């Protein structure tokens, strides 16, 4: 993907860079840029964001960290065989996949890794800075799309990998987006440093399927004054997410965001739980089923059931591109701290924004309008863009 010499290029550093979501992000960006497919699912391609100063897809440069060594072109072949990517696309953008793969560095911590947490953070930050400098990028956004981690076990437990990467992003002078339920910037060890950095950050846990529906249906019940008695759900999924969420601690972290949406939109948490079942045969496809019991006029008891069947990678990838573009532009415009107006994309968003999807979308569009203002050249003390550092 070649960019015009008159436009600065922007880096997208993906944590979990050889996973299904990251591979779909890189493949999709190249395919849309080449005109092979329309930007279906990309919110930032809506006319509401015209003139917001977002970086063009052709100006995005990809790299990242991963503990896997399967090259991106090979990973794309696997996703094509599984029906995630359309036939022929991975071959058509093979050069772009190979270029991104050359920018992927070993992640961690891995089994037998003797480096301390401080050493890992320094190594990760150095990788990001090197990526920015070698590619002469104006800035880079770090996006976590790795598998879900169990919640940390207290202040004396080792820092989760997601938090190590979040701290590395801050040290490298880069905005950070957490698309996963993992702690990342939410950990106390990172929260204070994020505040001091003056960098923008967003997250957490991308809202792609079941919770997207909940963010629509919850407000509907509340606005129609219908009493929800119980709300139960089941998720069937395979792939890396299915395997990771087979761990009860990881599943609990995932379900917390789903419950928050109901609590915030209904004002209470109804009876019922969400179950997550690992079904390896499903691969990157998932089925989400919800059973909602509610009372109508004169106590008449009724039920609404929904079934959502989709491909998680294809649902997530356009949102990752949206978030990278919006966060990069926010950084360019001098916005700092939690990007509350990006709550539209997340189950458990940072800040105190609205929970209903319609209100979140209105806040997002208003944010896009604010980004149309001329870029601010002022930055908080010590917050130079990564491309400006020696």
Automatic annotation (TrEMBL):
Record-level GO BP terms: inositol biosynthetic process; phospholipid biosynthetic process
Pfam annotation, one family: NAD_binding_5
Source species, domain of life: Bacteria
InterPro entries: Myo-inos-1-P_Synthase, Myo-inos-1-P_Synthase_GAPDH, NAD(P)-bd_dom_sf
Signal peptide start-end: none
GO molecular function terms noted in the UniProt entry: inositol-3-phosphate synthase activity
Domain Myo-inositol-1-phosphate synthase GAPDH-like: 209-313
Stated family: Belongs to the myo-inositol 1-phosphate synthase family.
PANTHER family, A to Z: MYO-INOSITOL-1 PHOSPHATE SYNTHASE
Protein known as: Myo-inositol-1-phosphate synthase
């Amino acid at each position: 993907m070649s960019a015009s010499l008159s436009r600065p290029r922007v880096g997208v550093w993906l944590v979990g860079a050889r996973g299904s979501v990251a591979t779909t992000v890189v493949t999709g960006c190249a395919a849309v840029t080449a005109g092979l497919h329309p930007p279906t699912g990309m919110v930032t391609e809506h006319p509401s964001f015209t003139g917001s100063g977002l970086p063009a897809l052709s100006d995005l440069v990809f790299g990242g960290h991963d503990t896997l060594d399967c090259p991106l072109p090979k990973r794309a072949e696997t996703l094509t065989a599984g029906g995630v990517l359309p036939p022929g696309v991975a071959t058509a953008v093979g050069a772009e996949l190979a270029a991104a793969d050359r920018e992927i560095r070993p992640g961690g911590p891995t089994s037998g890794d003797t480096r301390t947490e401080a050493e890992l953070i320094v190594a990760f930050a150095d990788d990001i800075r090197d990526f920015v400098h070698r590619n002469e990028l104006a800035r880079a956004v770090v996006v976590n799309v790795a598998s879900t981690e169990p919640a940390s076990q207290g202040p004396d437990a080792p820092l989760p990998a997601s938090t190590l990467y979040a701290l590395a992003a801050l040290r490298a002078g880069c905005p950070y987006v957490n698309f996963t339920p993992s702690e990342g910037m939410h950990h106390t060890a990172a929260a204070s440093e994020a505040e001091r950095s003056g960098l923008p950050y967003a997250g957490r846990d991308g809202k792609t399927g079941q919770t997207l529906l909940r963010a629509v249906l919850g407000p509907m019940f509340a606005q129609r004054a219908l009493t929800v008695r119980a709300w139960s759900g089941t998720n069937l999924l395979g792939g890396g997410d299915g395997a990771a969420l087979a761990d009860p601690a990881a599943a609990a972290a995932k379900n917390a965001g789903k419950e928050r949406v109901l609590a915030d939109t209904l004002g209470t948490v109804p009876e019922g739980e969400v179950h997550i079942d690992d079904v390896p045969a499903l691969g990157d496809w998932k089925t989400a089923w919800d059973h909602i019991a509610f009372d109508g006029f004169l106590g008449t008891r009724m039920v609404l059931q929904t079934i959502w069947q989709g491909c998680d990678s294809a649902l997530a990838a356009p949102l990752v591109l949206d978030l990278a573009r919006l966060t990069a532009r926010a950084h360019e415009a001098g916005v700092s701290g939690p990007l509350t107006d990006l709550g539209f994309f997340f189950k458990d968003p940072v800040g105190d924004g609205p929970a209903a999807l319609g209100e979140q979308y209105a806040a997002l569009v208003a944010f896009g309008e604010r980004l149309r203002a001329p870029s601010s050249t002022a930055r908080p003390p010590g917050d130079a863009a990564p491309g400006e550092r020696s």
